[in-house]
């Protein structure tokens, strides 16, 4: 309740929105997962709520750039699986639960990471309909909130996106080699949101840059005037991001990071 009240301090129904690329420049049927997330989170972001890259909440002890390692991975069980316990708020209706569980299944069906209802585990995901769509990065310990606000975040691709953050993955265009694959048009980005386009010395797990990753920003993310902020190279018309769920490369990266063995060639 205290956290919810603090969130509300950032949100005033009378404040202007950020320019909404998802409403004015992207058709609803063309929105990828991150477009949908930014549409929901825009009031929080316009008031300075501390979401890194639009939807990652800092734990206070870990930065975005240091997560891909043992410190933020969920532990591997002796049977070779990685069990991620979760509880889900009773506020969700049946369709909301199905949406969230579909996002989980899209990951669990092709990796050794299995989302399981919590029994007594100390570390678990606490999936709540708070304000916005956001997650911490990697396992932080204890009750770890993943916010999937209903109805705005109720898309299985959005759920999978936030769950991948909880597993330790940053946005695709933040990776260290991104400048070989996309151009960032800094002049088109809202000035106080340019920090969201930093690149980091990431462990790319020997995978190719994935334009179709569910973790990729949309073409107009944080646009100031409706101009594109990210352009693929060498073909500027290459689609970026998508809304349906993890790409094959997303799945491959999960399997590599979590040493999933027989799943790794998926």
Automatic annotation (TrEMBL):
Binds 1 zinc ion per subunit. Its EC number is 3.4.24.-. It is an enzyme of class 3 (hydrolase). GO terms for molecular function: metalloendopeptidase activity; zinc ion binding. The active site is at 162. Its cofactor is Zn(2+). InterPro entries: MetalloPept_cat_dom_sf (IPR024079), Peptidase_M12A (IPR001506), Peptidase_Metallo (IPR006026), ZnMP_hatching_enz (IPR034039). Keywords: Disulfide bond, Hydrolase, Metal-binding, Metalloprotease, Protease, Signal, Zinc. It comes from the Eukaryota. This is Metalloendopeptidase. It comes from Sinocyclocheilus grahami (Dianchi golden-line fish).
């Amino acid at each position: 309740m205290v956290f919810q009240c603090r969130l509300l301090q950032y949100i005033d129904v009378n404040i202007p929105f950020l320019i909404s690329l998802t409403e004015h420049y992207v058709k609803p049927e063309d929105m990828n997962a991150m477009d949908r997330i930014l549409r929901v989170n825009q009031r929080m972001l316009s008031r300075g709520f501390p979401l890194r890259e639009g939807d990652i909440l800092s734990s206070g002890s870990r930065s975005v750039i240091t997560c891909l390692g043992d410190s933020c991975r969920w532990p591997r069980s002796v049977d070779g699986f990685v069990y991620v316990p979760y509880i889900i708020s009773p506020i969700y209706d049946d369709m909301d639960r199905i949406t969230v569980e579909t996002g989980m299944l899209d990951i669990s069906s092709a990796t050794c990471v299995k989302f399981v209802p919590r029994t007594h585990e100390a570390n678990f995901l606490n999936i709540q309909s708070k304000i916005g769509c956001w997650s911490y990065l990697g396992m932080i310990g204890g009750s770890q909130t993943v916010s999937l606000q209903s109805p705005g975040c109720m898309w299985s691709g959005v759920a999978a996106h936030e769950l991948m953050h909880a597993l330790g993955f940053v946005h695709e265009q933040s990776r260290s080699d991104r400048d070989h694959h996309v151009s960032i048009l800094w002049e088109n980005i809202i000035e106080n949101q340019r920090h969201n386009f930093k690149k980091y010395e990431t462990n790319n797990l020997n995978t190719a840059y994935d334009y179709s990753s569910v973790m990729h920003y949309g073409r107009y993310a944080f646009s100031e005037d409706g101009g594109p902020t990210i352009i693929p190279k060498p073909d500027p018309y290459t689609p970026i991001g998508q809304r349906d769920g993890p790409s094959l490369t997303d799945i491959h990266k999960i399997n590599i990071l979590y040493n999933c063995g027989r799943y790794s060639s998926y």
